[in-house]
Design a protein that fits this description.
This protein has about 220 residues and is an alpha/beta fold. The chain is built from eight helices and six strands; from the N terminus they run H-H-E-H-E-H-H-E-E-H-E-H-E-H. The longest helix has 16 residues. The radius of gyration is 17 Å and the shape is globular.
Length: about 220
């Protein structure tokens, strides 16, 4: 049973009855029983639990969870406190510093964003340890496409930050009243092409123009 315990239950509850999700569930049971899988099972839906559907202002779409021990906890790009900041997230922080003047924090725990309405969603919600994309094509994409489509139906305009080709491909699911911001993925493998996108100031300007409170992108030090 999917139990988010907020208004996401009305959005995703019906998915669990579908054949694709039943197959995904059986796959995940076998994977968690026989391999190291991230994030921990009880944190798979953390992004939805901490940012209710009605509260979403910004969607930051990732690919799949971090593959190293102790990093993934169910929210795209975020890591738990005390964990070394991964390279992609460090580049995100550098862009926010250049864009808005925020200090680079000593941690990568993005819960303060989630609590303000930033949905930190991966397109695939689980991964086998050490093996990127190992749970791609198993059904998660259909589940998260349903989430993106549901958000696109919201009357109140949202901001979608789509970084990298996979994320950019989801723009076809999004209605035009929302702001769609696209850029190269923040991974160092992209050669720094992410820098200068200024998505964070643009997002705040869009929110304020619609009478919404902007996001405080400064992550406090622990």
């Amino acid at each position: 049973m999917i139990r988010i315990n907020n208004d996401w239950d009305d959005i995703v509850g019906g998915q669990q009855e579908m054949a694709y999700y039943q197959a995904l569930r059986q796959f995940l049971k076998a994977e968690y029983a026989s391999h190291t899988v991230y994030p921990p099972m009880d944190e798979i839906f953390s992004a939805l639990r901490h940012t209710p559907y009605s509260d979403v202002k910004v969607v930051i779409l990732g690919q799949d969870p971090y593959i190293n021990p102790g990093e993934a906890h169910g929210m795209s790009f975020s890591v738990n406190g005390g964990v070394k900041i991964p390279p992609s997230l460090r580049n995100i922080f550098k862009e926010i510093q250049d864009d808005l003047g925020c200090e680079i924090p000593d941690n990568g725990y993005l819960m303060p964003w989630a609590k303000q309405g930033v949905l930190l969603l991966n397109t695939v919600l689980t991964v086998r340890g050490g093996q990127s994309k190992s749970h791609a094509g198993k059904g998660w994409e259909q589940f998260t496409d349903h989430i993106i489509h549901a958000l696109s139906q919201r009357e109140k305009p949202l901001v979608f930050m789509l970084w990298g080709n996979l994320a950019k491909s989801k723009s076809a699911l999004i209605n035009p009243q929302h702001q769609i911001l696209t850029a190269t993925h923040p991974s160092p493998l992209a050669g720094g092409k992410f820098f200068g996108c200024r998505h964070f100031s643009q997002a705040n300007q869009f929110l304020e123009s619609g009478g919404q409170t902007p996001i405080n992108w400064q992550i406090p030090n622990l």
